[in-house]
Structures are given as structure tokens and as C-alpha cells.
Amino acid sequence: MQEQRRLDDQASKADKEHEQAMEGLRTALESARTAYEHMEADLKESDANLLNMTKQLDNANAVQKVAAEALEAANLEKRRLMEEAKSREEEVSNLRKDLAIAEDGRKEAKARKKEAEARLASAEADFRGKLPQHRGLY
């Protein structure tokens, strides 16, 4: 009977150890479940942050694309304006040359006019000098 009691005590002790071990496993399992839930929540938050960052990157890329297109358009407009300015400078240069030629022509024409007026005056004087002097005719 003592042997039975000893066996019962050992069985009881084994049951208590088993119960404590099961309680430790339950606690460990609960801790693992809690840790998993926290990790899952962190992962969802990370996914949301990643999605937000991806959207921000897409927006930044779109803005950069629009800015690049605007810069290209501005460069094209600048090039067009510079070509127009060059064309106008050439036009102004040509007009100045034409004006200088016209000015020279005008000076030359004035000089020829003066020469012609002088020859006319000389011719009139010669003509008058060669006319007979009749009184009363003039």
C-alpha cells in the first residue's frame, strides 16, 4: 500500500508538473499569438505606408514630367524667340545698309542737282548774254 501511495504521489506530482507545463505552453502560445497579431498589425501599417509612399512617388514623378515638359516648351519658345531676334537683327542691319545707300544716293542727287542748277544758271546767263539787246522787249 505504501507502494501504491508512493505511486499515487508520483502520479499526482507528475499531473501537477504536467498541468504546470501545459499552463506554460498556454502562456507561451498566448504570447506567440499576441506577438503575431502585433507583427501582423505592423505589417499592415508598413503596407499602408509603402502604398502612401508609392502614391507620393507617382505624384512626384508626374510633377517632374510636367515640369520637364514645361521646361522643354520654354526652351523651344526661347529658341524661337532667339531666331526671331536674329532675323530682326539681320533685317535691321539690312535696313541700315539700305538707309546708308539711300543717304549716299540722296547726297549724290543733291550734288548733281546743284551741278545741274549751276549749269542751268550758266546756260541761262550764256543764253541771255547771246540774245540781242532790244529795248522794250523785256
| Unreliable sequence segments | none
Straight-line distance between termini: 188 Å
Q: What is the helix tally?
A: 1
Rg computed from alpha carbons, rounded to a whole number of angstroms: 58 Å
Mean pLDDT figure = 93
The shape, in one word, is rod-shaped
Protein name: Myosin heavy chain
Region (Disordered): 1-23, 85-138
Biased composition (Basic and acidic residues): 1-21, 85-118
Overview of this protein structure:
By secondary structure, the chain is mostly helical. The chain has one helix and no strands. It starts with a helix and ends in an 8-residue tail after the last helix. Residues 1-23, 85-138 are annotated as: Disordered. It comes from Abeliophyllum distichum. This is Myosin heavy chain. Residues 1-21, 85-118 have a biased composition (Basic and acidic residues).
Short description:
The protein is an all-alpha fold and 138 residues long.
What's the helix and strand layout?
Blueprint: H1 2-130
Features:
138 residues, mainly alpha, 1 helix, 0% strand, Myosin heavy chain
